[in-house]
Design a protein that fits this description.
The complex is a heterodimer.
Chain A (H helix, E strand, L loop, with lengths): L2 H7 L18 H24 L5 H26 L4 H11 L1 H19 L2 H5 L5 H31 L8 H24 L7 H15 L11 H8 L4 H11 L4 H36 L6
Helix pairs in contact in A: 2-7, 3-4, 3-7, 4-7, 4-11, 5-7, 5-8, 5-9, 7-8, 7-12, 8-11, 8-12, 11-12
Chain B lengths: L4 E16 L5 E16 L3 E5 L6 H8 L7 E6 L2 E2 L4 H7 E5 L11 H11 L4 H14 L15 H13 L5 E5 L7 H16 L3 E6 L2 H7 L2 E6 L2 E6 L1 H5 L5 E9 L3 H8 L4 E9 L2 E9 L5 H7 L4 E8 L3 H11 L1
Parallel strand pairs in B: 3-8, 3-9, 6-7, 7-8
Antiparallel strand pairs in B: 1-2, 1-4, 4-5, 9-10, 11-13, 11-14, 12-13
Classes of the chains: A mainly alpha, B alpha/beta.
Chain lengths: 294, 325
């Protein structure tokens, strides 16, 4: 293939398009929507494989499945010892919380690892929507978080003998999905700081510790000072854990719906915050040349 | 496309400001680009030459929207690089030399697939386009391997394939042949020349004079953040007209001997380049003055290798321009 034909081939429209009488050609807006959806799904999946550090089976199982399960067992036995709450409180709460590890660190990796590979500049040179590029990266992390939460809840329930009504399972899945998604956007918000600050991992480590303390997963909200409860209400997982506990207790989806709605609201807030921060820091990086520290 | 130029830069300036220390913060300012102005015609292959820290990469980053100018104006294909970033990004490709800038854990194919999404290559064209580019850069058959196992030359070729994914109107090549072996560098030059022949505008920065001489329609020599000379390779070469160059290979030349050579009548510039144990002393003199015997007299007692007297090359012109800045 010669160069002229090669260069022209990517931009030139096909000379002949066979008529397709049974299929309506999508409108411009629809095509744009399809392209954006593709960028979010295909692009997000490839970015996940490129940037997530724990994709190898050993790292995935060890870091994201075994470690959190022992954390769940630790708090469940501690709870039994101290008689603060029953097993359901710890098992369900910690299972929802386990999603946070993959989501918070994943969201951070989605931006910070671009610096590590020196690819951030090339990503920012894309003419495509930043919102689609980076929201798309959250989807695999949220899926990852959901998988981890389901595995941890199943293993925890089997090991400690917790019985969950079968009718509660769809609702539980929904609660864990909402928590994972909210947590993914929370991670992306932290990751956005990676456009401005090099040591963004410090923030992620602190955030994971804060989630452990402030989401009411291991310390009941009633036992926390008021300001901690307020901060906890603005964090992901808090409301998802509450909804999941209600569902596991057999209260039904209607009883869990308000908490579920609040979790989605928190997630939407972080999704918006991430986009705004990415926009601000991208402009800032061009102004301050902070990308030169790649 | 409205503008007659692919690239326009007008009094472009960029200052880096840095702050170090917490208790007693110290602010530093470096003026990397100081009033750079030039235009590049559509389809032109334009070279930007200069020593390390001259402002070449900063100029490219100002033009490709990665940096905002402190002052001045630049347009690519008629679009302002500061305000119309999306329009500019649609039309440019960026390739830089070195090992980084690729996803090591992914294969070459997945790297290209991802950037095809990011750079807006239509889904129906992606497969064919990627296959063509892999073939073009000689990575066909190796595209399934992880990039972490690639040699520097292979990475460089992948960089180029990525830069061409969306068939950009303007391609920025920032020292693309750095660290590449001579055979690969020759192939790279042929690729760049082919690109320019198809109408793609290329802005190339390089340290290699032969590369610039062979490829570029025009060259701007940049030093200290300012353009010191601009013209065709032939025009720049004439900057060294009226000169003669003496090269002496020596071992252990003391600074005092270099100073003595520098003070000889008729000598314009003297440079010493270390090449392992060997030092290459390059002496520029007026063409009508034969300084060779005087130079050898000043180096008496020092172990010498090859001694050569020759006409100036583009590299000598470049040294003369940069030394005068």
């Amino acid at each position: 293939m010669t160069f002229p034909s090669l260069l022209a081939s990517a931009v030139a429209p096909p000379l002949f398009s066979p008529p397709t009488p049974h299929r309506r050609r999508p409108h411009r807006r629809e095509r744009l929507g399809m392209k954006t959806l593709r960028l979010m799904t295909v692009g997000g999946t490839i970015a996940y494989r490129a940037l997530f550090n724990w994709t190898t089976p050993g790292m995935f199982i060890g870091t994201l499945l075994v470690g959190p399960l022992f954390q769940l067992l630790f708090f469940a036995y501690l709870g039994r010892q101290l008689q603060v709450a029953d097993d359901r409180f710890y098992i369900v709460g910690n299972a929802v919380l386990t999603a946070s590890l993959a989501c918070v660190f994943g969201g951070t990796m989605a931006v910070a690892n671009e610096r590590r590979y020196g690819t951030l500049g090339h990503v920012l040179l894309s003419p495509r929507s930043r919102t689609a590029i980076f929201w798309g990266r959250v989807i695999p992390y949220a899926g990852n978080g959901l998988l981890i939460a389901v595995v941890t809840l199943t293993a925890g329930a089997l090991l400690l003998g917790l019985r969950i009504p079968v009718s509660a399972l769809p609702g539980l899945l929904l609660a864990m999905a909402a928590g994972s998604l909210a947590c993914g956007f929370f991670g992306l918000t932290l990751g956005a700081l990676g456009l401005r600050f090099r040591d963004v991992w410090v923030v992620s480590n602190v955030a994971v510790a804060l989630l452990l303390l402030l989401t009411g997963v291991n310390v009941p909200a009633a036992g926390l000072p008021g300001w901690m409860v307020t901060v906890g209400n603005a964090l992901p997982i808090t409301h998802a854990a509450e909804a999941a506990r209600r569902l596991a207790a057999g209260d039904g989806l209607a009883a869990a719906a308000p908490a579920l709605g609040q979790e989605l609201l928190v997630g939407a807030g972080y999704a918006a915050a991430a986009v705004i921060l990415l926009k601000i820091f991208e402009v800032e990086s061009r102004r301050r040349a902070s990308l030169d520290a790649l | 496309m409205g503008s007659e130029y692919a690239i326009e830069a007008e009094d472009l300036r960029r200052t880096y400001r840095a702050r170090t220390g917490w208790l007693r913060p110290r602010r530093t300012e470096v003026e990397a680009v100081r009033g750079v102005s030039f235009t590049v015609g559509r389809g032109e292959l334009f070279g930007l030459l200069g020593p390390n820290g001259a402002g070449k990469t900063t100029t490219i980053k100002l033009l490709n929207t990665l940096l905002i100018p402190t002052s001045g104006m630049a347009r690519v294909c008629g679009h302002d690089v500061e305000k119309e970033t999306r329009e500019v990004r649609r039309r440019i490709g960026y390739v830089f030399g070195g090992d980084r800038g690729l996803y090591d854990r992914l294969s070459a194919l997945d790297n290209l697939r991802y950037f095809a999404e990011l750079y807006g290559v239509a889904p129906r064209d992606q497969k064919r386009r990627i296959a063509e580019l892999l073939d073009l850069v000689g990575l066909a058959g190796r595209e399934g391997e992880r990039v972490e196992g690639y040699s520097r030359g292979m990475r460089q070729r992948l960089h180029i394939a990525r830069g061409l994914l969306h068939a950009p109107d303007v391609l920025f090549l920032d020292e693309p042949s750095i660290g590449v072996d001579p055979v690969a560098a020759r192939e790279l030059r042929r690729t760049v020349a082919d690109l320019a022949s198809t109408g793609t505008t290329v802005l190339l920065t390089t340290h290699y004079m032969a590369e610039a001489d062979e490829l570029c329609d025009r060259i701007a020599v940049i030093a200290d953040g300012q353009i010191q000379a601009l013209g065709t390779p032939a025009e720049l070469r004439r900057r060294a007209d009226g000169r003669r160059v003496v090269e002496v290979e020596a071992y252990g030349v003391p600074e005092s001997a270099v100073d003595a050579v520098r003070d000889l009548p008729g000598v314009r510039e003297t440079a010493v380049e270390a090449r392992g144990a060997l030092q290459l002393l390059t002496v520029h003199s007026d063409a009508h003055v034969d300084v060779q015997s005087d130079v050898l007299r000043e180096l008496a007692g020092i172990r010498l290798g090859r001694v050569d007297s020759r006409e100036p090359t583009l590299e000598d012109a470049y040294v003369a321009i940069v030394s005068a800045s």
